[in-house]
From TrEMBL:
Keyword annotations from UniProtKB, A to Z: Acyltransferase, Transferase
Protein name, entry field: Acyltransferase
Coiled coil location: none
UniProt-listed InterPro entries: Hexapeptide_acetyltransf, Trimer_LpxA-like_sf
Similarity comment: Belongs to the transferase hexapeptide repeat family.
Gene3D superfamilies referenced in this protein's UniProt entry, alphabetically: Hexapeptide repeat proteins
GO cellular component: cytosol
An annotated Gene Ontology molecular function: O-acyltransferase activity
């Protein structure tokens, strides 16, 4: 088992009991405290890349599951206030921009099972990568599915289901399935 950061290879850090990494998988942890790292559970296949260096606050837990060849980037200043689970059951990626705020929830790049066309056998639900741009606030218990892209400076309402669509910058989105509820917004972590 190997753990990486940008300056050196570290063997068996104290938080490693929660990490099961496949061969060739790298983890960048620069600037993340051991207290935060101890709240992260990682199970990965081979040849994955995980950049946790942007994680600023983790008040509960972060679970990461990746199959072979997956990639995860957490942007600078990311804050997580509720339990967050990230699932990549097939080669795909999750990219989370800078200064995002999560109230908790799930992010899934695939369905974990195949849905096939009965006549052709063609797979109808392949894995798709997910992008959450800079400064997105995701409320509690949000579910983000493969192929989704949430534009910068947006808000995703609590318990929303984001189903593989692209949402524009500066939007409030919500519902099941999610849709744009309001445009031309920004948000601030401080109450004004």
């Amino acid at each position: 088992m190997r753990f990486f950061n940008r300056t050196k290879v570290v063997h068996e850090p104290s938080y490693s009991q929660n990490w099961e990494l496949g061969h060739g998988t790298s983890v960048v942890t620069d600037g993340v405290s051991e207290t935060v790292l101890a709240r992260i559970s990682i199970t990965s296949g081979s040849n994955c890349s995980i950049d946790l260096s942007g994680l600023a606050t983790l008040n509960t837990s972060l679970q990461i599951f990746m199959s072979d060849g997956c990639h995860l980037i957490l942007g600078e200043g990311m804050m997580v206030n509720g339990a967050l689970r990230l699932f990549m059951h097939e080669p795909s990626s999750i990219t989370i921009g800078s200064h995002c705020l999560f109230g908790g929830g799930d992010v899934w790049t695939s369905d974990m099972h195949s849905i096939l066309d009965k006549d052709t056998g063609e797979r109808l639900n392949p894995a798709e990568s997910i992008v959450i741009d800079d400064r997105v606030w995701l409320g509690a218990e949000v579910l983000i599915l493969g192929g989704s892209r949430v534009g910068r400076d947006s808000v995703v309402a609590a318990r929303s289901l984001v189903t593989g669509k692209t949402f524009p910058d500066n939007s409030v989105i919500g519902g099941q399935p999610a849709k744009v509820l309001r445009s031309n917004v920004v948000w601030d972590i401080r109450i004004r």
